[in-house]
């Protein structure tokens, strides 16, 4: 096994736009309008999406989809994608599915997240799709589910969330 000194160092450079521009736009649009503006590139994605390599595919009422290409920069110490990266992807998709139902002036935050890891995620798996779908949306609380699958439909992880809905004018 080669020593650390014998292995070429790798690097990752990440560029992002001012996240407060998008955050301000979120207060002026309905959730679905905001997400569609982001999916169509008129509003920059949040820095976490750039950092971890998530890409919007679509946003509909109560459903969103992201794509994700696993990379070695996502690895845990044993050489597979870290569960925290997968959890963040699922949390983002489920939360955005809730956001897609919110009117202007409302926002959400995750209260609870439960993730089930079904199999290891590796770069060899190719592009993965993460779908979030609302199960229930009330005035103050919403629940959603998420699935991370490859393009053939093989499941890698699934999750559920509970989100609190609040008025942005009060924050």
From TrEMBL:
The lineage of its organism: Bacteria, Pseudomonadati, Pseudomonadota, Betaproteobacteria, Neisseriales. It comes from the Bacteria. GO terms for molecular function: 1,4-dihydroxy-2-naphthoyl-CoA thioesterase activity. This is Aromatic compound degradation protein PaaI. It holds the Pfam family 4HBT. The keyword Coiled coil does not apply. GO terms for cellular component: cytosol. InterPro entries: HotDog_dom_sf, PAAI_dom, Thioestr_dom. Residues 79-155 form the Thioesterase domain.
